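Q&A log
Question type: sequence-to-structure
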Amino acid sequence: MLDVPTLLIALAFLLAALLYASVGHGGASAYLAVMALAGMPPTVMRPTALISNMLVAGVGAYKYMRAGRFSWRVFWPFAITSVPMAYLGGSIHLPAHYFEALLGIALFFAALRLLVKPGGVAETLRPFKWGWALGIGAVLGFVSGLIGIGGGIFLSPLLIFLRWAETRQVSGIAAAFILVNSASGFLGLLQNSPPLPSALPLWAVAVLAGGWLGAELGSRHLSPPWIRRVLGVVLVIAALRVLLA
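Response status: OK
Response body:
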């Protein structure tokens, strides 16, 4: 019989997936925060967050691609270097708190930039620089695998600030980026034989439902300024999770 804490975690996962999927994210930072509040051990938290991330990002990537909100040209240079580095990061068993302060501060300032004037970020695109994308992908992939997230939380604001893709395309690119990095990080993590919670099937259904609804909103109904506002809120939540962990 399911207990109340398990059901509450499922509800929190569903709501987090809905919010994050609306901007093309998987929600790993939120799942980690929920599990930390529930007192779950890190050995369980990391694989659970990555699996949930894969499910939500997979749904999101599918929905955004179907809606034409995706760019292979921008996606693959980031992915080609991030995937092996995410595997490497996932295989390393090191405490992540050394990185969390700087990452939390970076996320917070990125959120402020989006929230202060969400409608004022220009949609005029700049030339895409493949060399920079390859380097950024490697860094984001390694950090993502090490911490147990998909990396879209960092890629989305970067793409918006650099103006390498339209806002709705950014969400689709981020979803696919999160999917491949979460899968790679999880494969690296499997080397340590992580334990999985018995409630994982229930939580998987919850994040799939939330992810489907959120991706539908983001890919077809939310305007670019609203996507930036929601992304700003998501970044604030992620920053607080990292800084207060």
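Response note: Residues 4-244 form one domain.
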